[in-house]
Amino acid sequence: MSRKKLIAANWKMYKTPSEAKAFVDAFLPTVAGYTRDEIALFPSPVLLPTVIEAAKGSSVAVGAQNIYFAEEGAFTGETSILQLKAVGGTHTLIGHSERRQYFGETDEIVNKKLHTALKHGIVPVVCIGEVLAEREAGQTEQVLKTQVTGAFAGITPEAAAPIVIAYEPVWAIGTGKTATPEMAVDAHRIVRAEVAKLLGSDVASKIRILYGGSVKPDNATALCSQEEIDGALVGGASLKPDSFLAIVKY
Ligand code: 13P
């Protein structure tokens, strides 16, 4: 079963609108006509209109780093999925470890956001991953199963097709420590088996599982060429067009 890979940039809380536009203007010509993999950019909400406008007519998708589960209302500081759709965003990250760590997002919140994204036809990239203490305590498998089960509560096999999962071991994020391809493949197999248990083997064989955590130009090939790894979610190394391009063209 061959799955089209997705190479995605999570810019986190970096870039001004002019810096974001300069990135897209420099990056797009270098991937014109490129069809091997899908490419997506995840800028901060205030940058979305600029990046979407700059990427218009290209095959590069643009999404949010986070959406709220309610469609609208008195939720100061949050971004609504209706707003994301209205400006032309097509994807969203859900449950990034920084959201879990600093903003108290639980598996229950992740689940509600996943339902909202699917309802509105936005491609959800659900982020999961263990912290260092969990890995060292031999709990990685259990943590991943719990996160997948929690995120997928109430999701039917029919609704699940657009879902992308990103396995991002928290100890590898922004640390320069990457999971070895073997470690990533092991984790992806655990996640895929859990998806099979919950939603059946057909969904599991089609669902894309990205790896994230210190992906750089010099380790992207070893990771992304694994059959079990369906692409990358890149933080720091996605901020410069050259570096992100080198990962896209691993
Ligand atoms: P780094 O690539 O900077 O480790 O970040 C990974 C990440 O969190 C992507 O979502």
Protein model, in words:
The chain has 250 residues and is of the alpha/beta class. It has a single domain (6-248), classed as TIM Barrel, CATH 3.20.20.70. The protein is 42% helix and 15% strand. It has helices at residues 17-31, 48-55, 81-86, 97-103, 107-119, 132-136, 140-151, 181-199, 201-206, 220-224, 241-248, and strands at 6-10, 38-42, 60-64, 91-94, 123-128, 164-167, 208-212, 231-234. The longest helix is centred in the C-terminal third of the chain and has 19 residues, at 181-199. It is globular, with a radius of gyration of 17 Å. The model has no long low-confidence stretch (mean pLDDT 97). Residues 10, 96, 168, 173-174, 212-215, 233-237 line the site of 1,3-dihydroxyacetonephosphate.
SSE topology:
Blueprint: E1 6-10, H1 17-31, E2 38-42, H2 48-55, E3 60-64, H3 81-86, E4 91-94, H4 97-103, H5 107-119, E5 123-128, H6 132-136, H7 140-151, E6 164-167, H8 181-199, H9 201-206, E7 208-212, H10 220-224, E8 231-234, H11 241-248
Parallel strand pairs: 1-2, 1-8, 2-3, 3-4, 4-5, 5-6, 6-7, 7-8
The structure holds 1,3-dihydroxyacetonephosphate.
Main attributes of the structure:
42% helix, 250 residues, alpha/beta, 11 helices, TIM Barrel
Ligand kinds = 1,3-dihydroxyacetonephosphate
Q: How many helices does DSSP assign?
A: 11
Task: Please write the string of helix (H) and strand (E) elements.
Answer: EHEHEHEHHEHHEHHEHEH
Number of DSSP E strands: 8
CATH class: Alpha Beta
Low-confidence spans: pLDDT under 50, at least 5 residues?
A: none
Estimate the helix proportion, in percent.
40-55%
Number of domains: 1
CATH topology: TIM Barrel
What's the average pLDDT? 97
- Strand order, biggest sheet? 1-2-3-4-5-6-7-8
Distance between the termini: 21 Å
Rg:
17 Å
Strand content: 15-25%
CATH superfamily: Aldolase class I
Main sheet makeup: 8 strands, parallel, barrel
Global structural class: alpha/beta
CATH architecture: Alpha-Beta Barrel
Overall 3D geometry? globular
